[in-house]
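Researcher: Quick one. two chains, 538 residues in total.
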Amino acid sequence: MLEVNSLSAYYGLFQALFDVDLRVEEGECISLIGANGAGKTTLMRALVGALKVDSASVLFEGQPVGGQSERQQLARGVTLVPEGRRLFPSLTVRENIELAQHHGRPGKWDAELLFQELPALAEVQNRMSTELSGGQQQLVAISRALVTNPRLLLCDEISLGLSPYAVDEVYRLLNRARKDGMSVVLVEQNVQRALAEADRFYCIQKGRVVLDGPAADADHHAVANAYFGV
Amino acid sequence: MARPLMLTIMRLLTPTLEFDMLVFIETLINGLLLGALYALFGMGLSLSLGVMRMINIAHGDFIVLGAYLSSVIVMSTDLGPLASLLLLLPLMFVIGWLLQVVLFNRVVGRDPLSPLLLTFGLSIVIQNLLQEGFSADTRSLPAGDLALQGVELGGMSIGVLPLISAAISIAVFWFINRLIHRSPVGAAVRAVADDQETARLVGVNDKRLFAYMTGLILVTVGIASVLYGMRTPFSPASGPERLIFSFEAVVLGGLGNLWGTFIGGLIIGVSQLFGARIDTGLGPFFGHLVFLLALIARPQGLFKGGKS
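Model:
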């Protein structure tokens, strides 16, 4: 479904990604593992169109789509849940979700279905998003991405700073959405969780993929080495 | 001995006191009415700052441009200044839309300096074009009977034109506020104002939204410019002063707070007229003085917080 071929990305003169190769199959979940500053978020931003990259370095169903705008990627079905949730503080919970729904793809997921799935959110739908707890805010952030009916969902640090219970709830929603065949790319600080949720993993170090393979038989020692760069 | 003296003084003072009270209330009301117009000047600036994070130095010159365009419409048709709005406002919208698409969208959203420099240049260009086209002479929009009519109110006389201006200003503020806080388009506007990058992620076309926004801003400018031109003579060089008053209204109210801008405008208007009571030439000076004092006391603006 998604194929990344020797992708390089730059912030001005600074090169953040070096010849990254990666693929995501239909319905698959992959994890990107790596230390802070390794380039995981940069990779996500490149995939979603927030960072200009070479057109041929990102293929979506065989078509070169690298460097196209966020709106074009959204229309194609690639959506990002950004790190730190980034809800709009001036919008209510419902407005946050409906804004994305309005600009996203038509499909199964809409605000009503989400409020059915998450009664706790339905109760606070008319509150400002900043009034919610961190876990609830993360659920809104994922809901906001789901209502665009993505085929490939990119999740950047969706469990950061949440209580274990809230993390479980976030992943419950994600797995509920995956049942319909949606593909997922996870960036997750908790390596055990990252490997448990994913089918395959990629370790990224200083902008390069240094290790990859099926998550089920990942060698934790090798992953740790790749993570810390020893 | 002391008591009769006091009574005499009181008796002497009372009529003046009454008179002063009347003058005070009249000045206050006229100040508020003038302030409502300043608020309308400030609205466009408040919107472009709040939504696009862009300071438009040419804002005052757009107000003057609008007044000139209205004057051209008035002279070449048999429409009055208020009726000229029918033609002026669509024209202003198109001008705003084109400016954003052709010019502003190239610089907006990067560092704040680029829009500042661009609109600074644009301000000079507009002033010179106006001078080339209309000479440096002052003009005004013919307000006709409206300029002379007044309403008698308990011994005071309040001008009908300022009353109409203030009513229009309030209506525009109410409408724009509703548009931003109660409509789907408004939600997109607020989202972009909050976080442009994330708004793009959820599919908002920020550049197109900005183009409509600047069109809308110039519509509010168009309304303000006609009300201004009917009230005060203007010349191609009047823009910068309009900009200063607009700025003071916006900053005083707190950046990005629409009703704050409205109140800010009122305060500037009232200060100016009370200043003018003390000395006719000191009106604007007192406006600036109150602005500076308020800025020292509350650098974040009087109504900090609420984004709009």
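Chain A has a mean pLDDT of 92.
Researcher: Thanks, that's what I needed.
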